[in-house]
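Fig. S4 source data, part A: sequence.
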Amino acid sequence: MSLRKCVAPGLMAAGLLVAGTATDARAEPGGCLKYGAVGAVGGHLAHHGVLGAAGGCAAGMYTRHEYRKGIRAKAALYDKEHPADPNMSLAERYRNRKTDEQKATLYDAEHPSAPPGH
């Protein structure tokens, strides 16, 4: 067994472990890697792997952009309905701040969509 076959899986596992612990995981739709991989597979079947990967990457970036734009819009609506208390100090406002994702989740909880058929 060659050294390459022994060391490569170990390095790959170590790299995945470091990459997995270095970033926080968020469940966002889309993304260049996710859609690009699917596009590459689809493109490979049509003998245009690179073109499929590029198209998939573009579609993934657009999907993620639209998702984040929706989050920002809901956060703005939440801020409009919940203005900052003018009596709070700047330090208290800083401690009580929320991310756009948290604001969007709270907005969705306060404004549930009507069930289908109603």
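Fig. S4 source data, part B ends here. The chain has a mean pLDDT of 83.
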